[in-house]
Amino acid sequence: MNILLLSMPDSFEHMPSIVIRMPNGALSSLAGNVDGHHRVAVADLILCQRRVRETVTRLVQELDPQVVGLSVMTFQRRTAERIIHLIRRLKPDAKIVVGGYDPSLASEAYLAMPIDFIVRGEGEVTFRELTRALEGHGDMHFISGLSHRHEGRWIHNQLRAPSLLESEEIRLPNRSARVLEGYTMLGRQVDVIETSRGCTYDCSFCSIIEMRGRNFHTYSFDRVIADIRDAKEHGARTLFLVDDNITLNVRRFEALCNAIIEAGLHTLDYFLQGMTSAIANHGEQLAPLMKRAGFRYVFLGIENILESDLKLLQASAKNTARVNGHSTGNATLQAIEYLHRNGIYVVGGLIVGSPNDTVESIEANLAFARKYVDWPYIQHPTPYPRTPMTDDFRRRGLIEHERFEEYDGTTSVVHNENMSADEIEYLRWKAERGMKTRHLPSVFLHDPWFVARNAMKMAAHTYRGSTLRTVLGLENDRQAFARYKQIRGKEREYV
Ligand code: B12
Ligand code: SF4
User: Which has the closest alpha carbon to 348: 414, 314, 301, 389?
Assistant: First the structure.
């Protein structure tokens, strides 16, 4: 069969497509795990954000797919629905499958759309079995993780247990299936790899536990190294490790750094997402080792510097420093100190606008980010489907609306007892712009040509909404903020 797999074009404020256009790891993994006789094409629509309709039309006409799969996050749901309608018009008999976090955790939102299947949870094995069943080998009713239509009704088969990655049940991704070009991270070709899946923490804002339960499974280092080599052979110079929590097992992570060095793959740039506690508690050995392995940026899940907010986010445990097993307080500063001492940049993941927050507590977090982090990645608590936080906010009547396309993390859709949603977002927006500009010289030293060619575009993106009048002080920031919100609204119309 011909199979077309699409990821959505929607990006959010911290991932401007001028500088970051990453492949969706799920799709190349699905492509690598269907039977070999299928012709699979993967198209990441982030690569053609302003030409989505034309690109999808061309791909459907050229590839004539019997199956089209879409990978969707909640803030991309509206775009996905529009693309589904477009595909239906272009090829009425194509089987349309949706998967990813939103279809898995908010399946009910998809039942009225003109689709045929929903894959809930991990996709590789379910999708492989689905393609076999579509060819007449197997029965839809027995495919775990699948929702399908039967005699006019939706049937939701039982859930599929997470794959034991150790068993090598999941084959390597198929990067050759990608049909669009232009992946980049600050001018260098980027790819994504996975070394593990899952997490055993239960932060209240995170979707991972509802998606796959509390567990942690790892790929063998041989497979990881083969995956890195494959990404490199496909042109990547920067790799983003998409593991849910790679620092969960620090000893394994250290061994992974050593394996990368031994394989001579430390010449690539690596980005990862890590816990402050792991780096604070093991940073003395871990941070220099990470540097030698090629780690350049660490996204630190700081979440909040105030203990009361951390409790609310259920994120205290993963942000606690320990000596001889005893808590010595918040791990953030110690973690940042180890990373900076070893020349690794910190992307500071903070969440501001929780129910107890005040102007002062938000300002304290923003001041912290200004002082200690290299690149701010500050978000607002966002009620993604089926997280504990969403239930809590709903009960307390804090959610402003259900325009899901605005659930992108940097649009505040939740007010609190002290502040409106707009006020919360304004404080973050205002503070972050200066912080982002400050990091530009470091980027210039690493990638001078890229910065020389794109500095104006990057600045225009960071300061969108501001005009000469704002710069000259002839209007206040609130007017620029209102314009920024309008621009952001228009940006969301991808199809
Ligand atoms: C890595 C990651 C990123 C990377 C993305 C890199 C990339 N291009 O892939 C970065 C840091 C850029 C990122 C950004 C964002 N992310 Co993010 N991210 C993750 C993370 C950690 C892992 C996702 C991943 O790649 N997993 C590995 C792949 C193989 O697994 P998978 O995506 O789940 O796919 C499997 C199944 O879902 C399914 N599947 C997926 N698609 C499809 C499609 C079909 C057809 C089928 C059959 C099956 C299927 O099969 C796959 C294989 O088993 C998750 C989870 C977490 N712990 O936080 C969050 C997560 C996905 N992100 C999330 C969000 C909200 C965002 C942001 C909007 C804001 C933010 N929090 O930063 C931005 C938006 C990015 C943008 N486009 O502008 C949310 C999504 C929640 C939701 N309900 O939509 C998550 C769940 C985190 C959370 N808050 O709980 N993210
Ligand atoms: S530690 Fe990270 S992956 Fe694990 S539950 Fe918390 S936010 Fe999610």
Answer: 301
What spatial distance separates the first Cα and last Cα of the chain, rounded to whole Å?
27
User: What's the Cα-to-Cα distance from 87 to each of 2, 54, 113, 164, rounded to whole Å?
Assistant: 14, 12, 12, 35
Closest CA to 172 of 188, 191, 185, 144: 191
| Crossing angle of helices 359-372 and 421-438, rounded to 10° | 10
Give, using CA atoms, the residue closest to atom 6 of ligand 2: 203
CA distances from 404 to 75, 205, 209, 265, 394 (A): 5, 16, 21, 40, 15
**What does the pLDDT look like over 174-205, one tens digit per residue?**
999 999 999 999 999 999 999 999 999 999 99
DSSP character string of 49-70: TT-HHHHHHHHHHHH--SEEEE
User: Chain-centre distance of CA 302, in angstroms?
Assistant: 16
- The answer to whether the beta carbons of residues 427 and 352 sit under 8 Å apart is yes
Ligand 2 atom showing the smallest separation from residue 207 Cα? 8
Of 184, 192, 207, 378, best ligand 1 pocket probe by most atoms within 8 Å of the beta carbon: 207
Exposure string of 446-467, with b = 16+ CB inside 10 Å and e = fewer, is eeeebbeebeeebeebbbbbbe
Residue 314 banded pLDDT, cuts 50, 70, 90: confident
Burial of 129 (0-12, 13-18, 19+ CB in 10 A): buried
Model pTM greater than 0.70? Answer: yes
| Ligand 2 within 6 A of CB of 211 | no
pLDDT at 397 over 90: yes
Q: Measuring CA to CA, how many Å separate 48 from each of 56, 165, 214, 286, 485?
A: 10, 33, 36, 39, 23
pLDDT at 325 over 90: no
d(CA 381, CA 399): 10
CA angle at residue 211 from 208 to 212, to 5 degrees? 90
pLDDT tens for each residue of 43-86: 999 999 999 999 999 999 999 999 999 999 999 999 999 999 99
DSSP summary character for residue 268? S
* Structural domains in the chain, sorted by start: 2-156 (3.40.50.2300), 183-445 (3.20.20.70)
pLDDT at residue number 327: 78
Which of 101, 200, 202, 203 gets mutated to test ligand 2 (max ligand atoms within 8 A of its CB)? 203
How far, in Å, is the centroid of ligand 2 from the Cα of 278?
13
**pLDDT tens readout for residues 298-312:** 999 999 988 888 888
Q: Is 206 in the pocket of ligand 2 (CB under 6 A)?
A: yes
How are beta strands 67-71 and 95-99 bridged, if at all? Answer: parallel
Q: Is 245 in the pocket of ligand 2 (CB under 6 A)?
A: yes
Q: Which helix H or strand E contains 383, and what residues bound it?
A: none
Per-residue pLDDT at 329: 77
Q: Is the CB of 427 under 6 A from ligand 1?
A: no
- Identify the bridge partners of residue 368 per DSSP, sorted by sequence position: none
